Amino acid sequence: MSPGGVVASTAEPGGLAGHLDGFVRAVRDAGIPVGISQAVDAAEILTVVDLLDREQLRHGLAAVLLQRAAQRPAYDVLFDLWWPLSDRVAVPGDDDAEDEAEGGDGRESTLDLPDSGEDLAERLRAELLRLLMEGDEEALRRLARIAVEQLGRAQPSPSGQSYFSYRVMRALSPDTLVSRLLEGLLAEGDRGGLAEQVARSTARERLAAFRAAVEAEVRRRTAAEKGREKLAKNAVRPMADQVDFLRAQAADLAELRRAVAPLARRLAVRLSARRRLGREGRLDFRKTVRASLGTGGVPVITHHRPRKVHKPELVVLCDVSGSVAGFSHFTLMLTQALREHFTGVRAFAFVDSTDEVTRFFRPGADVVDAVARIGREADVVAFDGHSDYGNAFEVFADRWATAVGPKTSLLVLGDGRTNYRPPGLPVLADLVRRSRSAHWLNPEPRRLWGSGDSAADRYGEVIDMVECRNAAQLAEFVTTL
């Protein structure tokens, strides 16, 4: 089918236009912002790329739908679901292409497979080693299809047939082929030099390509069994700025750090704009009247007394107990980045007692190291090490009574779970009253406020309580502060 014929099918119900619309909706549901203009551009892409070239289509749609490199992994997973691996792009209404997506091009049937499971795995393993040495990506992709069909199937269940990539990897153990693969890639006497480094890099790339082909084939078969839309909700990892602080894994930490860093700069711009707009003080009546004499007594131009503009001060009260450790890590990162934009930044950490930790955030200090030192050196535990917001607030008010004043912005970070201890509402209310502004960032979903030992709903009556579960919500808070 020619590209022109494919485009013509968009007018048919459920054709290419509907298929693209479903794909764009899935991309948007994955947390990637896609506007109407971008969706229109995606439709335009279908008229200028070769629809029979899957990779050209992948890159063309990515060019108009994505804004950041971090969005690419989620996009690639969704693309593989909506445009499954085949020698041709699987276009709705194109029976030949869909048949190829299901069964390939027929060349994979040339592999003579034994019946027994042990012999089957060994035969496929030997074939895998041969193809890895040759570096034929198309042949590796066909082998991945065979391996998933023969080795990836689990026992049938009432919900249908299931396939798993780990079953294929466990049976073939491709990582154990590295030494034999290097022997085939290296010539005699090339060990230990640059040639070996290149060979190892090549081996890693080819093994990664095979793993990706297996995972894509598993997703394709699962999507055919259970539906693309249902699979997309579980197959796509949330974007870094959508990952909950309380559930962040090690793999998410670096991306989250990069997401938090620009927030201080954004807040600095807003604060600078406010300072520029607020430089004019009260009306200077004498100068205004004198200037009006030149315009017939009409005060066309008003004059104001200059106002001395001060950078605001910031006081941060942060719960560093184990239940909110991930959240406090990233909010303290923001605190560190804001130091240059405030006259004074003072940080206080607490569990069931409070201690000032500003000393750990000297200019140039590593935030990860600072957070670790807080746990080792700060006097934040007085009794049993369980959160006690009431006692922590009282200790802060007693020891640092002058820390909060009319020029101070107060920022409280924590989940508000008091372990059924007194919440210290009067002390917090007094701190809020004495501050210039006060906000509380809570990493728990709003629906959980007030449940169990949470006093978040009661705290919300005396301070502005803001849900802040991920970097996206933290960015929204910063831009509206």
Describe this structure in words.
The chain has three domains: 3-103, no CATH class; 107-237, no CATH class; 250-277 and 310-480, Rossmann fold, CATH 3.40.50. The longest helix has 33 residues, at 194-226. With 481 residues, it is α/β, with parallel strands linked by helices. Helix content is 51%, strand content 8%. Helix 2 (16-29) runs antiparallel to helix 5 (72-82), helix 3 (36-45) runs antiparallel to helix 4 and helix 7 packs antiparallel against helix 8.
SSE layout and pairing:
Blueprint: H1 3-8, H2 16-29, H3 36-45, H4 54-65, H5 72-82, H6 95-103, H7 117-134, H8 137-151, H9 165-172, H10 178-185, H11 194-226, H12 228-235, H13 250-277, E1 280-283, H14 285-292, E2 304-306, E3 313-319, H15 325-337, E4 344-350, E5 354-356, H16 367-377, H17 389-399, E6 408-413, H18 425-434, E7 437-442, H19 456-459, E8 464-467, H20 471-480
Parallel strand pairs: 3-4, 3-6, 6-7, 7-8
Antiparallel strand pairs: 1-2, 4-5
Helix pairs in contact: 2-5, 3-4, 7-8, 8-11, 10-11, 11-12, 13-15, 13-20, 17-18
